[in-house]
Amino acid sequence: MDDAYEARSIRTDLGGIIVKIVGYLFIGFFSLCCLLPFLLVLGTSFTSESAIKRFGFNFWPREFSAFSYKIVFENPDLIVGSYLVTIGITVCGTALGLFLVAMTGYALQRPDFAYRNRISFFIYFTTLFTGGLVPFYLLVTQYLSLKDNYLAVLLPGLLSPFLIIMMKSFVRSIPHAITESAKIDGAGDFTIFIRLILPMTTPALATIGLFIALGYWNEWYNSMLFLSPDMKYRPLQLFLYNVITSADFIRNSAAASNVELRDVPLESMKMATAIVATGPVILFYPFVQRYFIKGITVGAVKG
Hints:
It is a multi-pass membrane protein. It is found in: Cell membrane. This is Carbohydrate ABC transporter permease. Residues 83-288 form the ABC transmembrane type-1 domain. InterPro entries: MetI-like (IPR000515), MetI-like_sf (IPR035906). There is one protein chain. By secondary structure, the chain is an all-alpha fold. The chain contains 14 helices and no strands. The protein has helices at 2-45, 49-55, 67-72, 76-108, 116-125, 133-143, 151-154, 161-171, 176-184, 189-200, 202-217, 221-226, 236-256, 266-301. The two termini are 48 Å apart. The model is unreliable at 299-303 (pLDDT under 50).
């Protein structure tokens, strides 16, 4: 009897080990597939334009060249200023947007909030229909007078229906009895939200904060609409977009004039700007990864 039990235990342990090995191999292969495109971008960014034309894109530079980075950082004052503008907008927008999304999600899941269904309808309605670009532009420039103002980039990204729904689903998993007991002890709604709800929603806050931060970091469209070229410092993504556009314009103009330009590394510049734009995000992501996965899982299950 003991021998049979021991044999089953050994088979169970062996099966578990095989499952773990297969799982690790699959995850490792999938992770490598996700990493390869980034390595391709990194290798191409340090490759000369002539080598790209002859050999195509490669993981390892055939002819090493940092000329594309030299062009991107040709005006260090501008790129440092663009970095600071983007960091400032991202930090302020993430902090304020996270606070507003958390408050909205918390209020909409409160069963004692009389107008939660009506407000939820207006929030969900915006996911189906929008006012369009022209009314949005007129609102920001004419009524709010935010032309050439960084607030025109900051304000539109503060609230998102998708993030509000995610936050509402997460907060719903917190028992309402906690709020009721705090009210019996004399705590107000804002005190309950700050001292009880926020500490219990750390995974959701990290997840939503990452979404908001990525949205602000990659933002360039509103910057292009509302920030004129007269402004010295504009967000990083728009600055890099203008660098690529200028290089492309120079090459096309030269080609139209039957003049060959070999000193404009357009393809490697595209890769270099991608590295410059995504580098800080890649360094920051590991610190919030565990909260991100937990927040996505709980928000998906608890609806």
